[in-house]
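Researcher: Let's try something more involved. This one mixes different molecule types, so please make sure each is placed in the same coordinate frame as the others.
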Amino acid sequence: MKKSATINPPAVKCYHCGEPCENENFLLEEKQFCCYGCKLVYEVLAENDLCNYYNIEAFPGESQKSQTGKSNRFDYLNDEETERNLLDFQNEEQSHVTFFIPLIHCASCIWLLENLFHIHSGIISSRVDFIKKKVQIKFSNQKLSLKELVELLSTIGYEPRINLANLEKKQKNYSNNRIVKKLAVAGFCFGNMMLFSIPEYFSETVLIAENFRGLFNYLNVVLALPVVLYSANDYYLSAWNSLRQKRINMDVPIVLGIIALFFYSLWEILIVGNAGYMDSLGGLLFFLLLGKIYQQKTFATLEFDRDYKSYFPIAITRLSQDVEEVIPLRKLEVGNLIRVRNEELIPADSILLCESANIDYSFVTGEEVPVPKKKGDLIFAGGRQLGDPILLTVQKSPSQGYLTDLWNNEAFEKKKDKLLEPLSNKISASFTWIVIFISVSALLFWSFTDFSIAVKSFVSVLIVACPCALAMSTPFTLGNTLRIFGRGKFYLKNASVVERLAIIDTVVFDKTGTLTSPSQAKINFHGEPLSKETKSLIKSLVSKSAHPLSIRINQWLGNISALEIENFEEIKGNGLRAIYKNQEIKIGSSDFTGSNNGELEELGNLVFFQVEGVTIGYFHIQSGLREGLEDVVKALQGKYEIHVLSGDHPHELGSLKAKLGKDIQYNFLQSPKDKMNYLRDLNTSGKETLMIGDGLNDAGALQESNVGIAITDQVSHFSPASDAILSSDSMRSISDYLDFAKQSRNIIKASFGLSLLYNVVGVSLAVQGLLSPVICAVLMPVSSISVVLFTTLSTNFLAWKKGLIIQKST
Amino acid sequence: MEVIFLLIAISLILAVTFLWLFFRAMKDGQFDDDYTPSVRILFDSHKKATKKQSTKPKSYE
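Model: All components are placed in one shared frame. Result:
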């Protein structure tokens, strides 16, 4: 919407990035640029004769407007230790380094990055890996330092994302290569064994002389050795590890099958003089490994798709040139100045710029006593400021993953009975035992009649039975549901929350900030007219508080600059206090300011403004219901028991009843502790509760409920006590979300049935010796993948039917 | 028929050679990035391409 408004006048597009140019200040050689940054990049490229960059693709660059480059932000690269960690290779003359540059997106990018040596003679060569968005640069140590190289990349708009934890990724790639190698060996041996086994399949006709048969069989044994000793390695290791921990995993039956097949064939060939099943063994491993690779690929794409963490809705208040702006976490950069208010989370490791801070690390360490910090101290991510707002400068790029891990801290785990997830874990554990039992019975049964069928059915049962299909139906359904919710700006802590949502029967709403919205509030100021300075003064107090009423007043004041105040203090649930020009300023409730409000009581929320004990006036805030919420509550009323909790006075009871309905239980004057106890009482009376609040003064209640959803407006107060975060504009869909959670529970049950059916059919055929081990090896991954496809497609279909998936475009 | 011994030997050696070549290609990273080379080959060699199309002598100084 905003974009179309700026495009309306026929805007000139920036020659570098293609964004509309809002003014004509940046003109160069008849080319328009949208900002100084884009122009600068062009200058650098033109100087080095690299303008071909603009000919390969139109508007190849990225807008440089948002670059808040501090010249010293790469100083940490001068550190030798850091340098060593980053470099791939170094000798006296040259160094090699690989950077991850998220911006790489087109052919122009490849061209420019591979022509870096034209810009600086110190660069020997550079090579882009487009898929991984990486560039490997070889440079001369004498002519260029690592820091200068990074600065150079950032001046042409390709700033690398430097993450010292990157080293782990190399390992992962390596193991993927290894499995491909094993597959290649298995395929090679399998193919050749098939050739040497051909005479066996024509044994009736004497195709070739008898002595060749012996030779072929011995060749098969030789070819089977690399398969058994090398290709099957991973299975032995995994089975051995699980046995050592006195558990039994699904690789154990596979290993049993491999060993049985190999030694039985060995015995047949060397002692009896028959053909054995070495070709089957080769095929078995070949298809098992192929399936494994395919499975890994399928899961990796789903995983990538499922990475809801990248939308994690933490907003941060950043200060640039004394103006506050709210940005999403991923835009936060090293060197940024940020302001963290009372109860807000520190998003990244930062250095304190104010005199003092009081940091509560309970989310990280579990220790609840706040730690005092002094100016210049390093504060780690995950801490929470208590008291005054503090000013910080970010030292390390923030990690969303780290913050989500905090959210998943065990301290906030909730009881898990009645859920399907633990059930499926139990099933797959005992499953293996049942399979081994069945296969041994089949072996014994057939060994009386035909020993070769006995071995065949033994191996087939072991291979065809697939607990993974059972084990995977739950995580994949829930994972996909999580993803669909994430698109609708409904972020769940983990998969088990979906299941808990599905069995909810009671919904509890917090009123302030949840049912009512700051943006819908009507604010009036009664008293002496406010001068500009007074407004600035009020702003400087309320902007430091995260209380809903402070936020509303802050919004009402609009965009004016704040003043320097001293001794700021927030008294929870009461008000704010500060010193300005040696005068005591108080903003808060009537009790706090001691103002007489006798007949005003009925009006609604009142916030008094006081200087040196003299009441100047008061804000009258009438809370407005969020848009569309009446329908939501009405829709929920038929299916759930609904409660409303509020910390306010019951003066709005009448209007609420008229709007939302009478069947709702309203409770006013609830302190945060009351709310928590209220939820506890509901729980002990056997209710499955869903608490919806703003996560600020109802954190305890969110924690106590079976599922706690924190509603966020743009400024989010991340509370690890909640199980889910819902963007306020998606609140009207909450009824749909609850329905959908129920349906995904049904999908889990259905896919459970599906995989059970597969196992019963497969095992019963295998017991009769009707399936060869090779076919079983093909069936096994096919079954797992079909279950995954079933759950993914059906959840997507249901979501589409409900209209939840359309919100993708947001 | 004795020629079959020779044939088997040759076929195995050939197959092992291919396996070894595959390993070598994998180690050299031939399968790591299967997109960039397809773009890279289309770039003209640097100097000639820019002189014709790029802007006039730098006048901004």
